[in-house]
Amino acid sequence: LRVILREESRRDLEDLEEMRFRNRTGALVPFGNFGRIERKPGYTNINRRDRKRAITVSANVDEDVITSVEINRLLRERYQDLGKRYPGYALRFSGEYEETQEQVVALTKAFGVAILLIYAILGSLFRSFAMPLVVMLAVPFSFIGVVVGFFVMGEPLGLMAVIGIIGLAGIVVNNSLILVDFINSGREAGLPRREAMLRAGRLRLRPVLLTSITTIFGLLPLAIGLFGVSAFLTPIAVAIVWGLSFATFLTLLLVPGLYAIVDDVAGWVGQARF
């Protein structure tokens, strides 16, 4: 049962001390005769999140000094033992960080769906289950360049980096697809496998290099911050520039080798070609 005095009767502590209560004999006794008032800090309101009491600390980030990803990393390192020092307490990162994590998870799922769709399209195009794998195996190797690039440039892997990786995958698949298609065309023309691979590498070397070089040099000023750094676009440029730099040479070297390996495996299981 909660009892609240009229507002005009609770504006001063003296008014509260003069509150009168009726005792068992019926006499009115002032509150100051049997009680005292103490000043202590209290809660103006209690916030809850997921049915637990929560204290929210928020601040704006100066992107010219530090990024939100770096701030959250530093906070995690500093308060990693918070639960041990203060049992019952836990630290939860929300706001931009939480939204970014949710978007990264969503983009990762979308990336997986995109890979499956690319595989299905390539499978229907080549009428084969193995050949799309040869084309798409160049994508994981391009991630080596992405990791090296973000380490060298000192950029954090975040939401925009994932978007750049998705765009990079499309470029890498395109180069690999063209190379494999030329190998198949040579073999259909009656050339031996080795000659078809050498012919495809020789004829597609210039187009693949020109496509990659123009893309790399077009995004290079943004990746290195030549005319200023953009928190949104720089991670995308870094992912594509470094990933494509590695993937170009790996595609020219690994795709023909993978093609030959899979072709040999297909021959061993009784298929002349896959």
Number of helical regions: 9
- Structure class: mainly alpha
Shape annotation: elongated
Proportion of β residues? under 5%
Helix content: 55-70%
Overall mean pLDDT = 82
Written as H for each helix and E for each strand, in order along the chain, the element string is HEEEEHHHHHHHH
Largest sheet data:
2 strands, antiparallel
Q: Roughly how many Å is the radius of gyration?
A: 33 Å
Distance between the termini: 81 Å
| Strand order within the widest beta sheet | 1-2
Number of strands: 4
Low-confidence stretches: none
Description:
The chain has 274 residues and is mostly helical. It has nine helices and four strands; from the N terminus they run αββββαααααααα. It has helices at 13-17, 68-78, 82-85, 96-126, 131-136, 138-153, 159-188, 193-224, 234-268; strands at 20-22, 28-30, 48-49, 52-53. The protein has a two-stranded antiparallel sheet. A two-stranded antiparallel sheet has the order 3-4. α4 (96-126) runs parallel beside α7. The longest helix has 35 residues, at 234-268. The radius of gyration is 33 Å and the shape is elongated. The relative contact order is 0.09. The model has no long low-confidence stretch (mean pLDDT 82).
